[in-house]
Amino acid sequence: MKHLALLILLASLLFRPSAYSSPPNLILILADDLGWADLGCYGNTFNETPHLDRFARDGMRFTQFYAGPVCSPTRCNLQSGQDQARFGITQHIPGHQRPFARLADPAVPRQMPLEVETFAECLAKAGYATGYFGKWHLGGAGFGPADQGWQTALECNGNTQPPKVTGSAKTLRTTDFLAQKAEEFIAANRDRPFVLQISHAAVHIPLSTTPELKAKYENKTPMPGYPSNPQYAGLTEELDQSVGRVVAAVDRAGIAENTLIVFLSDNGGLEHEQSGRVVTSNQPLRGEKGTLYEGGIRVPGIARWTGKVPAGTQCDTPLITMDLHPTFLELASAATPKSQPCDGASLAAVLRDPAATLARDTLHWHLPHYHHSTPASALRRGDWKLLEFFEDGTLELYDLKNDPGEQRNLASAQPTLVQELLAALQAWHKDVKALMPVPNPRYDPVKADQLGKGLQGGRKKRPKQ
Predict the structure, then answer these.
(1) CATH tag, 21-357
(2) How far apart are alpha carbons 110 and 99 in whole angstroms?
(3) Domain ranges of the chain
(4) Across-strand partners of 304?
(5) What is the pTM of this model?
(6) How far apart are CA 333 and CA 141, in angstroms?
(7) 125-137 pLDDT, tens per residue?
């Protein structure tokens, strides 16, 4: 009997579930308008981002992670796992109109439908605590994060938060406030599985930073070929410090080996303010927020999961923000919604091995609006990328492997490939029921750049090839 008891004890020790096999905690940190080339770990030598640089050394850095071209579309596909074109949220909510442009673009819905089953709702059903802090931008009252599965939710925007929001005696920097809320949530839920999203306003305009950081960067030697804007750099460093506090909170709670942390931006960097002032650069990528060139849709991306995601690695596979929904569900062993399609692909295999391949080889974007370019769609298949501009039907084709800066339009040299990719793009339009711009009966070339309600400016012509 003693031997039998000993064998049972040994078996229980050998085969009991380890701490690492329990449902992992999941943290998504989302920056706003942070460009692909703004971080030290992506080659920037002016902006100082030591916490994110260390985060990349401790985890996996993605070189070809994509988002939507503007804010609300990305936030929609992140929450839903579906392409935003299915909902018509192809511009920031509520969008802006150019009443005299060549094309009349489709109206943007004011919210993501409540019927969408977000990853928070799916994970809550699986027993997760869910927490959301920061910018939402997917609908107002009745359509906020608390209405979409986020049990603990606090919306805020802008670079500072007043006492009535923070509950403190003074105004706080938003990056500090969001770090504080994240620290509290992690400490309160360290003993159960949780999912946490922290959505920053940084580095969205209007720019501001602390007097100390502004002075620091005003006295720093600029980076050659980069705007080196002191306020932009200071706000970027504030964002970096906030990320560092969240990572430290995970380590301090002793849950690093059971916590996946993902850092992304919601779109490419905004190079030009409405005034024309240059605040950042996405070079060597072309374009900026509000365009379908790489500078508008390729974003910084980093993941850390101690002991699971191999440290110091780089993943060059094209991935996209809507992949987070199925990834989180797979890692949590949560049920997939049966009532809605999933356009994303789980990145679970990629997180284990950066060389892992996905069954998917094609990505799509749809921006039927005037933003920092003219209405367009794009498709990437393998290393080939096709852009279709709706004003005049212009087609552009780029070989991203050899020309990531999209400087050589190969459309005329590859007519067969262009027609093949265009047919695939148009078939995708039908599949997702993408809303399209139409000829504008009010078109006036003199007033074409005017925004609605008397506002002026903002649209830049598409560069000629």
Answers:
(1) 3.40.720.10
(2) 19
(3) 21-357, 365-454
(4) 261
(5) 0.93
(6) 32
(7) 999 999 999 999 9
